[in-house]
Amino acid sequence: MAFYSIGDVAERCGINPVTLRAWQRRYGLLKPQRSEGGHRQFDEEDIQRVEEIKRWIKSGVPVGKVKALLEESRTMTHDDWTYLQEEMMSVLRYASTSKLRAKIVAAGREHPVDALIDHVYGPVRQRLSLDHNTARIMCSMFDGILIEYVAATLTERRRKSGKEALLIGWEIDDRVRLWLEAWRLSQSGWHVSVLAEPLESPRPELFPGQTLFVWTGLTPTRRQQELLQHWNEQGYAITFHQP
To answer: For 64-105, how does the pLDDT look when each residue is reduced to its tens digit (9 = 90+)?
Structure first.
């Protein structure tokens, strides 16, 4: 597991180190580990939490009230997520792109990205994958607006400091899920570009000097793991994106 100093996190997330210390000490929003020398050590989960805190504050929530909202979002039950799924399905049945777009935007403001992907958008898309025309049309509309929303979110993320990364689908079929995973990855402070067409092999030599993430959809196969290790040994900055 990679760890980052408070300076690394400040640069990656565009937050002053003084602010990060205040979020930890005064408001109890962060709980970094400590090195043997007593220095703060942040992991990817901490970075995602920083981005989530920023999102709440940007939406107008006072910093003193953010902790309760973070805890609430993590205690939502299965029934709560099912209710959100049903709300999405209800909007889809009316085939109103404007209402669906508004619903997706509102959900993005109110809930963590990981939870939306895993507990709402993924299950709704699975329900819509039924093989009849109405469901397929609804799924196509849903997918189109999801990609539109994620692309806008990734563009907005570039207004903040961060490092460039390219996300590549490796032997996958679900292109929409690839965009959702790019959205998830951006929550760790990356400026993510998406290679729209999945590849049979990422071929990192075509992207010299770039940071590459590959998403395989499922657990990487032994062959994929061996290839990635080989590329790492050759000096390429390529790693699996594993939510």
So the answer is: 888 877 776 666 666 788 888 999 999 998 888 999 999 999
Q: What is the DSSP string of the chain?
A: ---B-HHHHHHHHT--HHHHHHHHHTT-----EE-TTS-EEB-HHHHHHHHHHHHHHHTT--HHHHHHHHHHHHS--HHHHHHHHHHHHHHHHTT-HHHHHHHHHHHHHHS-HHHHIIIIIHHHHHHTTSSSHHHHHHHHHHHHHHHHHHHHHHHHHTTS--EEEEEEEES---HHHHHHHHHHHHTTTEEEEEEEEEESS--GGGSTT--EEEE-SSSPPHHHHHHHHHHHHTT--EEE---
* Residue 149 structural domain: 78-156
* Predicted model pTM: 0.72
Domain tally, the chain:
3
Task: Report the CATH number that the domain containing residue 25 is assigned in CATH.
Answer: 1.10.1660.10
